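Try this one yourself first.
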């Protein structure tokens, strides 16, 4: 079947299998169904470092009491369905494999976490008959292999059970032929399928991403679920009950998946597989790194300082590092919840690329300087103006990760030491100035004519940088157009059928150039009248400028112990 191709011109459809994938045109107006046995999943990097096992689920858990006991949480009202409650309690005992007392504590903590984290879903009452439901640019569905709804980006999962059942039937029909359904292209819509860990992930999009890029986003969604439930928990659950309703365990964490897709719609870091670093003077970054190093306690494994979805600095062991996917999940965790600003939080989190079988335990807090404020950027309006927002108190999010679930108080003392030293050396003020764009860089600083914007990724450090967005990319539509162009270049450069080293593409509004080498990836935007030789000459000049500024733009020497 791998070499078979069937065409039906009269019927307006084409079915493509296996080796013919590279010949398909994703912009054709007919329907295209792609089937292949290959897997897009990358192997998990499971470290030898012992993690905390399967205890607990992610949520905004309160700190344990001084006597070492678990959180004293107020339980949510029990369900009226006694049978369902009994089944849930039984499953909890099986998953935790602990005695009855520990299982009750874990369940109480989870209910409190859900109460703190949960929020009403947007467009929750929409279904397939709602006039607005079909207008969304990108739908996301998650269901179990048995067809049980788990998550929908828009609408109520119960009301969408029928359409999810159809998806499960289509996937099963292809699997009966010993093959795997990868995507369907119908006009401007792309329907991408990923099957992983007893779950089926589906996205229906009419956006500019390629099927491979949409599949990457679905893999991120799978990693997001694994950050709440470890892989060993998922396997154990579905092996014991294939038709289990996973929403019971994920209830209250849907907003993290919602926020993840919102970030992926705006941030190029996901398709680049890189982390954005905050542009900061190397002396300030080194000072913060040394503070983390000096304040380290034996229980600490990783320490991160994050601001505005940008990495300020990182402390890690010499033998271990954090994959960009895990860092993106941490950024999403911080970005999706404002509860971390209210105090010190203690919660388990699974980082799938580091260890998908156990939890790290995170101490999350903000370090604030009451005398330091930052001017938040206004919201762009259609007339080119922006709304004005009053200056806000500035804070940097500090995450301290440990394998010891009883290390809260040790890490809390570590955090106090870090805060004291950072305020003493005015580090928060320096970070606030960088976030407020007073110390960041603009495209004019490169001194390159006709260069409108660029993205540069270092393949060695897996970090990327780009200047602030300025005219002509001030409105949301203009920014979406720019991101779509970068996505198009990335798809062409990394095409499995015909990868390219350099590509130059001209539209009515701009000319874009993509360049890939063994050391970097570079995407640049110019005015539309710039020729290819002029653009390449400009990029050479840009590379020299980046080399000169790399100490400020990247974390070249992270602190290690």
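Now uncover the answer:
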């Amino acid at each position: 079947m791998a070499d078979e191709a069937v065409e039906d011109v009269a019927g307006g459809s084409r079915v493509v299998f296996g080796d013919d994938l590279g010949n398909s045109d994703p912009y054709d107006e007919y329907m295209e169904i792609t089937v292949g046995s290959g897997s897009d999943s990358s192997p998990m990097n499971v470290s030898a470092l012992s993690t905390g096992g399967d205890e607990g689920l992610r949520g905004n858990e309160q700190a344990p009491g001084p006597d070492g006991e678990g959180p004293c949480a107020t339980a949510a009202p029990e369900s009226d369905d006694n049978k369902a409650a009994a089944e849930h309690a039984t499953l909890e005992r099986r998953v935790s494999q602990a005695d009855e007392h520990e299982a009750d504590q874990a369940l109480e903590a989870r209910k409190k976490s859900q109460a703190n984290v949960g929020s009403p879903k947007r467009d929750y009452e929409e279904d397939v008959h709602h006039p607005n439901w079909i207008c969304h640019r990108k739908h996301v569905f998650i269901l179990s292999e048995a067809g049980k709804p788990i998550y929908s980006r828009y609408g109520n999962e119960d009301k969408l059970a029928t359409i999810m059942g159809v998806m499960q039937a289509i996937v099963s029909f292809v699997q009966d032929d010993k093959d795997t359904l990868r995507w369907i292209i119908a006009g401007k819509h792309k329907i991408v399928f990923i099957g992983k860990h007893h779950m089926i992930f589906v996205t229906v999009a009419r956006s500019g991403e390629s099927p491979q890029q949409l599949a990457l986003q679905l893999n991120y969604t799978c990693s997001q679920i694994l950050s709440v439930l470890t892989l060993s928990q998922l396997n154990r659950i579905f092996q014991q009950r294939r038709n289990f309703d996973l929403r019971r365990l994920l209830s209250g964490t849907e907003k993290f998946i919602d926020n993840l897709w919102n970030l992926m719609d705006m941030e190029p870091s996901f398709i680049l597989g890189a982390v954005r670093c905050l542009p900061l003077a190397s002396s300030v970054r080194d000072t913060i790194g040394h503070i983390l190093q000096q304040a380290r306690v034996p229980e600490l494994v990783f320490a991160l300082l994050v601001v505005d979805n940008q990495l300020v600095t990182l402390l890690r062991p010499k033998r271990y590092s954090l994959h960009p996917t895990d860092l993106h999940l941490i950024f999403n965790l911080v970005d999706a919840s404002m509860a971390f600003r209210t105090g010190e939080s203690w919660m388990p989190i699974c980082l799938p690329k580091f260890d998908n079988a156990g939890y790290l335990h995170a101490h999350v807090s903000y370090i604030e300087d009451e005398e330091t404020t930052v001017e938040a950027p206004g919201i762009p309006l259609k007339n080119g103006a922006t709304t004005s927002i009053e200056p806000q108190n500035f804070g940097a999010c500090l995450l301290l990760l440990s394998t010891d679930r009883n290390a809260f108080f040790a890490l809390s003392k570590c955090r106090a030491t870090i805060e004291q030293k950072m305020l003493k050396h005015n580090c928060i003020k320096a970070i606030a100035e960088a976030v407020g764009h007073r110390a960041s860089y603009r495209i004019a600083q490169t001194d390159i004519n006709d260069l409108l914007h660029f993205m540069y990724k270092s393949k060695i450090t897996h970090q990327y940088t780009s200047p602030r967005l300025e005219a002509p990319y001030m409105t949301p539509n203009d920014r979406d157009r720019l991101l779509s162009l970068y996505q198009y270049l990335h798809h062409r450069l990394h095409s499995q059928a015909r990868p390219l080293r350099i590509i130059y593409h001209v539209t009515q509004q701009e000319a874009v150039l993509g360049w890939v080498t063994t050391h970097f990836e570079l995407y640049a935007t110019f005015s539309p009248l710039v020729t290819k030789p002029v653009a390449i000459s400009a990029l050479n000049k840009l590379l020299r400028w980046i080399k000169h500024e790399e100490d400020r733009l990247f974390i070249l020497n992270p602190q290690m112990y």
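Discussion: Residues 217 and 264 are 7 Å apart (CA to CA). The first helix runs from residue 82 to 96.
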